[in-house]
Fold this protein.
Amino acid sequence: MAFGPDSLFDYGQTDPGLAILRMSALLAEAEDDPDEETLDLLFEQVEAGHLVDADPAQMWPELVRGLMSPAPSKLIKTLRDCGALFEILPEVAALFGVPQISDGEDEVDLGEHLMRSLDAAAKRGASLPARFALLVMNVGKSDSPREHLPVHYRHVERGRPRIEEICARFRPPAECKALALLALAECERVHRVSKMRAGPVALMLERLGAFDAPERFQELMIVCASDFCAHAGREGKPYPKAALLEIALKACADIAENDSPEARQSARAEAIARAFRSERWSNEVA
């Protein structure tokens, strides 16, 4: 798909910085990949410094358009190929080339994994908050100490202020920020959840808002499932941890809300243990 120089400014409504985002979003919606001429044109606009003074709040609708496309990875790839990603989302650009290993998988490039997870979310018809969470939830891993790689020690502490800064720049809806911070803190814990630990599962459900914010909980499950399916060999497969947590949640449906927090937590853990057909449960944190 190609655009001429005049059409670039038409799409940006005379603002060349906005034009770069708008064209990238349109390319994400197109069936074909951008040709070299189009990428060269975008690169020239980035090199000319048109993104330096661009207003991120005005860029946000174009990012949304690209993220909500059938293949959001094309947005990220186009922005990266023309050099715009580093200018717009340096926290995300820094993830490319950073390794990670998970659940016995071979090492994966975090940037490439991010793009696959976004496409997996698109195939699920995921909402904007879910796609935004996938976009930013790993930004704390870009500068993990090299001696610890591919493990990312304390990435949550590094990631939280970066996500808050991204949200301050682009001013997305509040639910985008809330889900992104929840995914940052909990996605890897969800991946590790076990039916042999009913007490921690009960505590996790409460942390995740499964009882008092069920819509956000379901959004998080989509985020975790998309992250899971982005690994090689898992595309299109069901996410077993979501099914496990759904069993646990249903087991707690009849627990009285007017009990004390301690009694309610104990009753939930016992109900989950029965549902998991296991007597092994404790009150340790998952």
Notes: Residues 1 and 34 are 5 Å apart (CA to CA). Confidence is low (pLDDT under 50) at residues 1-6, 279-286. The chain has two domains: 5-88, 99-275. The first strand starts at residue 99 and ends at 100.
